[in-house]
Amino acid sequence: MDKLSSIKAFTKVVEHGNFSEAGRELRLSRSAISKYVIELERELGVQLLNRTTRSVSPTDNGQAYYRRCLAILADLEEADMAVTQAQVEPRGMLRVNAPMSFGTLHLGQAIADFMGLYPELTIQLILGDHFVDPVQEGFDVTLRIADLASSSLIARKIVPARRVVCAAPDYLARRGTPQHPNDLRDHDCLTYDHLATGTQWKLSGPDGDHWIQVSWNLCSNNGEVLGDAAIKGRGIALLPTFLVGPDLQAGRLTAILTDYKAPDLALYAIYPPTRHLSVKVRLFIDFLVERFGGQPAWDRASAAA
């Protein structure tokens, strides 16, 4: 059995959802593609695909195996590039996972510019705020905004992700402006439900650390939703400046409790450790550092406010 050819056939069938399209891309007959997949299933002892007369889809085992196959094929592609010294013009697919709000507000434009630099590279960008395993999901680069815990993965810091406590001027006019973190207990708060501390906010200032169990009237897994609610005067939010910097500058939001600071977070690029870092990953991360490093535009906007 030609294991590599079987893996290639299987991944193309999953991508296209049928054997004929996979065969056309690999320049093989439909029956040859089917034979490769059947041999693979026989060797593994599991069913990888659900087959109907109209479509083909991976089973749960097939989906997990597909992700690992993508990583294997990517490693082979990178090994070929290293041997042939194809270092100047990266080719192939770069799979990136990133947080939703940062992706829509800032990363989309950056990736469009990156594509202009390397037209032979194709990029698959998956946005979401849920935790993913980069290796299991087959991502080349995963961007995370966190106080990063240690792991077997390699992380490179791209840019700090400073957060501010803020509210709309009309909310503060109605309810008063908190002068101390403890005052937040008497206010409507808008909180992010993926915080490592749950619905507790930690703020540190001249009188030490304060852990505030906020009373929230809106909890969401998306920062843009919380920002929109804050602008509408629905409560006080703890949000990153990459999201609310322009709103602070325009006066739609006002930073409060400025003598107190939330724990530092940062945007990290995470990738699996390999002896040979792929050219496409290295170039992409270097591009992000150059694009967002130093004092980013959103912090300049919030500082101006």
Automatic annotation (TrEMBL):
<keyword id="KW-0804">Transcription</keyword>
<dbReference type="GO" id="GO:0003700">
    <property type="term" value="F:DNA-binding transcription factor activity"/>
</dbReference>
<keyword id="KW-0805">Transcription regulation</keyword>
<dbReference type="InterPro" id="IPR036388">
    <property type="entry name" value="WH-like_DNA-bd_sf"/>
</dbReference>
<dbReference type="InterPro" id="IPR036390">
    <property type="entry name" value="WH_DNA-bd_sf"/>
</dbReference>
<comment type="similarity">
    <text>Belongs to the LysR transcriptional regulatory family.</text>
</comment>
<dbReference type="GO" id="GO:0006351">
    <property type="term" value="P:DNA-templated transcription"/>
</dbReference>
<feature type="domain" description="HTH lysR-type">
    <location>
        <begin position="1"/>
        <end position="59"/>
    </location>
</feature>
<dbReference type="InterPro" id="IPR058163">
    <property type="entry name" value="LysR-type_TF_proteobact-type"/>
</dbReference>
<dbReference type="Pfam" id="PF00126">
    <property type="entry name" value="HTH_1"/>
</dbReference>
<dbReference type="GO" id="GO:0043565">
    <property type="term" value="F:sequence-specific DNA binding"/>
</dbReference>
<dbReference type="Pfam" id="PF03466">
    <property type="entry name" value="LysR_substrate"/>
</dbReference>
<dbReference type="InterPro" id="IPR005119">
    <property type="entry name" value="LysR_subst-bd"/>
</dbReference>
<keyword id="KW-0238">DNA-binding</keyword>
<dbReference type="InterPro" id="IPR000847">
    <property type="entry name" value="LysR_HTH_N"/>
</dbReference>
<protein>
    <submittedName>
        <fullName>LysR family transcriptional regulator</fullName>
    </submittedName>
</protein>
